[in-house]
Design a protein that fits this description.
Layout (H helix, E strand, L loop, with lengths): L2 E2 L2 E2 L5 E3 L8 H9 L4 E8 H5 L3 H5 L10 E6 L3 H12 L5 E6 L4 H4 L11 H14 L4 E6 L9 H10 L4 E5 L14 H8 L7 E4 L5 H9 L5 E4 L8 H12 L8 H19 L1 H15 L7 H9 L3 H14 L7
Parallel strand pairs: 3-4, 3-10, 4-5, 5-6, 6-7, 7-8, 8-9, 9-10
Antiparallel strand pairs: 1-2
The structure holds flavin mononucleotide.
The site of flavin mononucleotide has 21 residues, from strand 4.
Function: Catalyzes the synthesis of 5,6-dihydrouridine (D), a modified base found in the D-loop of most tRNAs, via the reduction of the C5-C6 double bond in target uridines.
Family: Belongs to the dus family.
Catalytic activity: a 5,6-dihydrouridine in tRNA + NAD(+) = a uridine in tRNA + NADH + H(+); a 5,6-dihydrouridine in tRNA + NADP(+) = a uridine in tRNA + NADPH + H(+)
């Protein structure tokens, strides 16, 4: 059984990765329904939070039904991060996660996200200060290192554990790799195999099939899998992995009815949560995967992703339901 602080997260938990503009409350709720054991918010800027920037503050919203949920923050300034911890605590998350892995220039150039991989002592001291500043478990999400020549993740993980991190999720790429190439899980398993490590080590990067999740568990011996892209528009990924673990067989794919139902609820929850304009816009990226496999889908998809009017999108769902009734997904 893996535990994050005192939270029992089960045997080989599946974690929904933090993803900007994706891991919002509606999507997290859908993933939770389909078996995600822990969900994380997208990253939230500590500088934004302390300025009370509305966009950052809105990202703190959580639904009761998605627990345990971690709120992820990023930043490189000690005071801002500590103040953010206090702000985040008021939303009542179960976990606070620190983003030490975001590779994008605007974050890295301020020394935050993966930028901190160039300053390991700061990474460790920030983590330590945050652990001391809250009773909530602090988890860390990071990458293997800055570049191939500076991978010290075994040592870094040990130091993070020693200052009180409750779990570490490691994306098997360096900052320099961004999202290119294949994630390398071997250094992650070296972290796990370090006899001094006792906190959970979660693997991340390219878990895109139940078989790959099983490999992460059985071949690499990790404590859980953090799943990002494979879940976008496909919250059933969690249920499929769990089914495969239980039975050794592939679950039947979700039916058209399930897909339509998820798409409708996703859109409705998004509209309820962030209003029609943003709700319609930000749910768009999921539709391709929701309906993947349906032949000649382009025309329907076009309707879903071009209109700003929710009624048009709901109407497109109705059409799909009518025109493809009984369609069997492979
Ligand atoms: C659209 C998108 C947004 C992301 N936003 C974040 C983020 O806010 N915080 C973070 O730690 N990682 C973020 N990531 C990285 C993912 O959490 C994850 O580490 C990465 O996608 C590799 O996992 P995967 O192969 O399962 O997708 C993002 C990735 C994507 C594709």
């Amino acid at each position: 059984m893996a535990k994050i602080g005192n939270i029992d997260v089960g045997e080989f938990p599946l974690l929904l990765a933090p993803m900007e503009d994706v891991s919002d409350p509606p999507f997290r709720a859908l993933c939770k329904e389909q078996g995600a054991d822990v969900v994380y918010t997208e990253f939230i800027s500590s500088e934004g939070l302390i300025r009370d920037a509305a966009k950052s503050v809105m990202k703190l919203d959580i639904y009761e039904k998605e627990r345990p949920v971690g709120i992820q923050i990023f930043g490189a300034n000690l005071d801002s991060m500590l103040q953010s911890v206090e702000i985040v605590e008021k939303s009542g998350p179960d976990i606070i996660d620190i983003n030490f892995g975001c590779p994008v220039k605007k974050v890295v150039s301020k020394g935050a996200g993966a930028g901190i991989l160039k300053d390991i002592p700061l990474m460790v001291s920030l983590t330590e200060a945050m652990v001391k500043h809250t009773k909530l478990p602090i988890t860390v999400k990071t990458r293997l290192g800055w570049d191939q020549d500076s991978i010290k993740i075994v040592e870094v993980a040990e130091r993070l554990q020693d200052v009180g991190a409750s779990a570490i999720s490691i994306h098997g790429r360096t900052r320099v790799q961004m999202y290119k190439g294949e994630a390398d899980w071997r250094p992650i398993s070296e972290v796990k195999n370090n006899p001094r490590m006792h906190i959970p080590i979660f693997g991340n990067g390219d878990v895109d099939s139940p078989e790959r999740a099983m490999e992460m568990r059985d071949k690499y011996g990790l404590d859980g899998a953090m799943i990002g892209r494979a879940s976008i528009g496909y919250p059933w990924f969690f249920r499929e992995v769990k089914h495969f673990f239980r039975t050794g067989e592939h679950a039947a794919p979700p039916t058209l009815e399930e897909r339509i139902d998820a798409a409708r609820r996703h859109l409705q929850m998004s509209i309820d949560w962030k209003g029609e304009k943003l709700g319609v816009f930000e749910t768009r990226r999921h539709y391709t995967n929701y309906f993947k496999g349906i032949p000649h889908f382009k025309e329907y998809r076009q309707k879903m992703v071009t209109s700003d009017d929710a009624a048009d999108v709901f109407a497109a769902f109705d059409e799909v339901e009518r025109d493809f009734a009984g369609y069997e997904f492979a």
